[in-house]
Amino acid sequence: MRSPLQLVRSSPTAGxxxxxxxVEDEKDVLDAMVGLLTLEGHxxxxxxxVVDVLRTHAExxxxxxxxxxxxxxxxxxxxGANGLEAIEGLCSHIGRRVPAIIVTGDTSPSRLKEVSASSxxxxxxxxxxxxxxxxxxxxxSEDDAVVPTRKPAVGTTEGLSLx
Length: 163
What we know:
alpha/beta; 5-stranded parallel sheet; 7 strands
C-alpha cells in the first residue's frame, strides 16, 4: 500500500549523522541496534512497537528538535503487525515519507515479494554492523533522500552482528 505522502528532504541536526526511528520487537536485537546506531552518531527513537517509537520521539520533541531522516523496522512485529505497516504509520505520523529499511529473517517468497514491491530497502538477518551502516548510507544518499552531515567514524562497526 503506497501513501500519498511525498518523500521530503530535511536537514539533519549538526553533529548528528541522522535521526532514525527504529522498530524491533526483539529486545536483544533492539538494544544492539540502538547501541550501534548511537555509536555512529545517529539520534535514535527506538521501541518494540510503533507506539513505543512514537512515545520515544514525543519525549525527544519535548526536549527540543527531533529530526527523522530514516525508518528502520523489523518485518515481523508483535501482534501480527509488519514492518511495512510500521513504516507507513510512522511516516504518516511525521507527515512525510522518509527513506526506510526493512530488516528480516523471513525468507517466505510472498513476504520478500511484498517488501521488494515497496520502495523500501531490505536486509536479511543476521545483519552485520557494516551491512546496516552501508544500507543507511545508501538510503540517505538517494536522490530524494537526506544526506547525513557527517560520516560515521571508521571501524566503529567492525565485528558487530545483529541476530
